[in-house]
Amino acid sequence: MSNKVADVATNEVKKAPKKKAVSRKDMSKIRWTLKEMRVNWLAYAFIAPYYLIFLTFTIIPVFVSFFLSFTSFNMIEPPVWIAMDNYARLFLDDDIFILAIQNTLIFAAVTGPVSYILSFLVAWFINELSPKLRALVTLVFYAPNISGSVYMIWQVAFSGDSYGWVNGTLLDLGLIDSPILFFQNASYVMPLCIVVALWTSLGTAFLSFIAGLQTVDRALYEAGAVDGVKNRWQELWYITLPYMKPQMMFGAIMAITGSFGFGGIVDALAGNPSVDYCAWTIMHHLNDYGGARFETGYASAIATLLFLLMIGSNALVKKLLSKVGQ
Predict the structure, then answer these.
(1) Rounded to 5 degrees, what are φ and ψ at 51?
(2) What residues are paired with 80 via a beta bridge?
């Protein structure tokens, strides 16, 4: 009897219509996204406050700034549409902006890659130390970045009188006859500001590199040795760097942001503006028109160009990082 019941149940199951599984290919991207949102609604509810804040204070201001870049707006009167006039003025009538682009690209080309490579090499060196020594050395290298205006020590060292450490030493050695005005001389301002920027460049990216190196599975090195990896450089290229791509990308973004947003150190050391505008950057130009002159439309055009420069640099770095390990 029990066998007959089982056979009947089996036949009923076979006769029942089978539900076709819905795959990603059978739905449009929008429908699939909405379906996943309904399934995981609780997760979206938890992250909604962050996304609302991010949308309100980051995404919307970017689009508003882009719109204002095509207007004449002084924060008092309503914006007036002037199309491409702000951009034409930037490149055809504003000689200081052309100089700012030149200086910014020099700063970015030197401080960006050098600080990025320096951060990784120092992190790689620290990773080989014992845990206690690693913590101490990390603090030593990271301290200039978290010490506020510690870079002002360079102003003391390169002070333009005989009390400056560098001038005092050079005078004692008989190498110069009178003190050098380092931060009032256009030949010295740019190199000194670049050196100070590199000195303070071991920041968040540096810590992310250390964290990334700590997460690399040691079994991968043993497998690499079996597959023909012969030295530390091959380990670095074929194992360590590919495993650390998220941290490498984060470090690149931080380096790009820091190199293009460079300006505070120049103001503190060389004044605003620096002598002959020798260290005038796009950020200085943006702050001048947006914060001092309140030409918001023109400042928005400057900000848009700076944003496009950073996006282009980010795309280039992303393409270069995709070649790592190949």
Answers:
(1) -65, -35
(2) 72
For the chain, give the secondary structure using H, E and C.
CHHHHHHHHHHHHHHCCCCCCCCHHHCCHHHHHHHHHHHCHHHHHHHHHHHHHHHHHHHHHHHHHHHHCCEECCCCCCCEECCCHHHHHHHHCCHHHHHHHHHHHHHHHHHHHHHHHHHHHHHHHHHCCCHHHHHHHHHHHHHHHHCCCHHHHHHHHCCCCCCCHHHHHHHHCCCCCCCCCHHHCHHHHHHHHHHHHHHCCCCHHHHHHHHHHHHCCHHHHHHHHHHCCCCHHHHHHHHHHHHCHHHHHHHHHHHHHHHHCCCHHHHHHHCCCCHHHCCCCHHHHHHHHHHHCCCHHHHHHHHHHHHHHHHHHHHHHHHHHCCCCC
The string of pLDDT tens digits covering residues 112-141 is 888 888 888 888 888 888 888 888 888 887
Cβ proximity of 299 and 289 under 8 Å: yes
CATH 1.10.3720.10 fits 87-321, yes or no: yes
pLDDT in the model for residue 318: 84
pLDDT at position 66: 93
CA-CA distance, 14 to 178, in Å (whole number)? 101
Instruction: Specify the domain boundaries for CATH 1.10.3720.10 within the chain.
Output: 87-321
- Evaluate whether 145 touches 207 at the Cβ level (below 8 Å): no
pLDDT (tens digit per residue) in 220-270: 887 888 877 778 788 888 888 888 888 888 888 888 888 887 777 788 788
Residue type, 173: L
Cis status of the peptide bond prior to 78, with omega within 30 of 0:
no
Residue 201 CA from chain centroid, whole number = 12
CA geometry: angle 291, 295, 299, nearest 5 deg? 75
